[in-house]
Amino acid sequence: MKAIFSNSEHDRLLVDLSQKYSGRFNIILKSKNTESLDKAKKELYEQISKDHFKKDITQNADLREVLNTYKFYSANLLSLKTARQIKNYDYELVKMEAMERLYCPMGINLLPIEEDPFLLFSDYLQSLGTAENTDITELDGYFYETVRLSLKDDIALSPSLLNKEMKEVVSAKQKIENKNPDIQIYLTGAPVHTYYASSKSMVEINLICILSILFIVMLCKFYFKTFKLLIPITLSLSTGIMAGYLLTCALFDSIHILTFVFSTTLIGICVDYSFHFFAHNNDIDSVFKSLTTSMLTTVCAFLILLFSKIILLQQIAVFTAAGLFFVYLFVVLFYPSICGKISLDVAEQMQLPEIFSYSPDKKTKKIIIVLLLVFSVTGIFQIKFNDDIKDMYKPPRALQEAEKLYSTLSQNASDITFFVVKGSGIQNMLENEERITQYLPYDKFYALSKFVPSKKQQQENLELKHKLFQKELNNYATFLSAKSKARLLQKSQRMGYLTLDKLPMPALQDFFAQQNTSVIILKKSAVDRDTIQGILKQSPNAMYIDLKQDISNKVCACRKACLSLILPVILLLFAGLSIIFKPKNAAKILLPSILGCLFTMGAIGFIHQGVSLFHILAMFLITGFSIDYSVFRFSGAKNSTASNAAVLISCATSVFSFLLLSMTSFKLISSLGLVLTLGLLSSYILSLLLISAPLQEEHTDNI
């Protein structure tokens, strides 16, 4: 998942590793007998495009050539487990395990017994894992077979190609289940979630667009009494969306599907400019100042997202800010000529209820503000922050159950972390790896040095074997002739050392993060934090990375950075509004937006929803949007009826758009939509109460 970017080495590795493993997913087959599992697996392989998937380490090689290479250097090879036992003088344990291998009816001796009486070579190969990337588990009367696959990088990193490939996998799953009622198939992994989330998001995009357009059509019909306005509105929206799309394409390699979901709010926001223009009888001069101020504050609110260091939010910022700006230009430059022939008499349109022009006395205002502040502060004190990246996406129930099943079957094998190891060269890198892996459980990690030990380790293995033979060969290998024993005791190293270039296993390159930099993959539960800290102190060339935790930490850092921007942004808006409306009036214009944000945060605290980075970013958007309501009400003294109506319509379109977003399936976007809906609605109501007629009259006098 390429969610966070930075120029630091740690953040680059976060991005690289998340991309490297983003294509991995699992297919779990369930049946009451293994024959059905085997049949279903064969059907599955027949229906999916094998060329689009990576092969595992042993599959991506000529097995016979690999085995011959390992055999040639077998004297240099020991499993990590056996090497530790010999170092610790656990000879009895070594002999006992050797006997088990020797007399195991399913065992295979890959070297002549005269060359390898302890079957140490077979033990080494077994420690590398099986050739087939599957395993079978029996649980609660059912057999489960897990097939682990990984999409090639060019497919995994392309949303369109990934979705196309996963569609084939899902289709194959459905066909097999329909054909074999005794088979159930579960899918897990990032590509699966990406496919289902993006597929559902496309449906939601279309639905949001349709409903937003219908809402605008209804407004035109019931307020302005004409459909002719839809032509200029459509032209302006098309211009804005196209401008946002082109600029986002120019600045980013690809556009995230959720950028389109969120940016559909352009429909609700951009029509505000059109409705203000129409509500003032197509008189651009009467609304030019208000439109310009509105555009600047809203664009600034979106551009704040550029500081989030979240690519999705940056794309939303660019797409929406560019769209708003070009819609504004279209309205200001072309509406006077395009709409000149559209006759509107706003005075004849429906009148707003008196509540939308209500202005309480000073005492009532003070009571409202005090009550609101008490509510907000009480709720804010109950706020708890939540930066866990996992809580920003809630998968469908079926996928949740599949992930739980995989976690049970694999004993949390999907929860992996990394040691990133540097070296001055390949051999130095391998030695640095081995210094770390000596502290790790031998069966809880994968590393390049497991497959290709360093020359130093190979020499040590040779000496450990010789030590074992000297101590235990005579009393263990009674089945060998005296001549064979003597040859083993005198045996020296074969031709050189096993090196990466001699081993025909291209997939081993996947262990490289950068040149002379490799990754050790281990289960998160394999070692505790104290052990990790101890390893890092002794290994200055190593770095520990926990993708989920580190990304959550980056989100936390971004949240804190955004919190630190709140006061500067308010001061910046106050300074800008002071230049246009004078400081006293600027403070009154800002007050509804600030109180609306406080009320929203208080409400979040009362419902005990964890506040994340995206809730904080929503405060910037609420401020930028809702200032428009105060600005237009404040600037509309000359035609208060038209101004109040236009502000109401603007609020209605924006709130409606964000309300639709709050109903989407993606938790990040839906939570943003809900918070923005609540914030904009409360800010609008507060602008009705706090932007009073005397203030409008004062502004009129100043003009």
What topology emerges from the helices and strands here?
Layout: H1 9-20, E1 24-31, H2 34-47, E2 53-54, H3 63-72, H4 80-87, H5 91-103, H6 120-127, E3 134-139, E4 142-151, H7 153-156, H8 159-179, E5 184-189, H9 190-222, H10 230-251, H11 257-263, H12 266-279, H13 284-303, H14 311-338, H15 362-380, H16 397-410, E6 416-422, H17 426-437, E7 445-446, H18 448-451, H19 455-476, H20 482-490, E8 512-514, E9 517-523, H21 529-538, E10 542-545, H22 547-581, H23 583-606, H24 613-635, H25 640-661, H26 667-690, H27 693-702
Antiparallel strand pairs: 1-4, 1-5, 2-4, 3-4, 6-9, 6-10, 7-9, 8-9
Helix pairs in contact: 2-8, 8-9, 9-11, 9-25, 10-12, 10-14, 11-14, 12-14, 12-25, 13-14, 13-24, 15-23, 19-20, 22-23, 22-24, 23-24, 23-26, 24-25, 24-26, 25-26
Describe the structure concisely for a colleague.
By secondary structure, this protein is of the alpha+beta class. It is built from 27 helices and ten strands. A hairpin with a 2-residue loop joins β3 (134-139) and β4 (142-151).
Describe the structure.
The chain is an alpha+beta fold. Helices cover 63% and strands 8% of the residues. Helix 22 runs antiparallel to helix 23 (583-606). The longest helix is centred in the last third of the chain and has 35 residues, at 547-581. The chain is elongated, with a radius of gyration of 34 Å. The two termini are 54 Å apart. Residues 1-6, 57-61, 346-350 and 693-703 have low confidence and may be disordered.
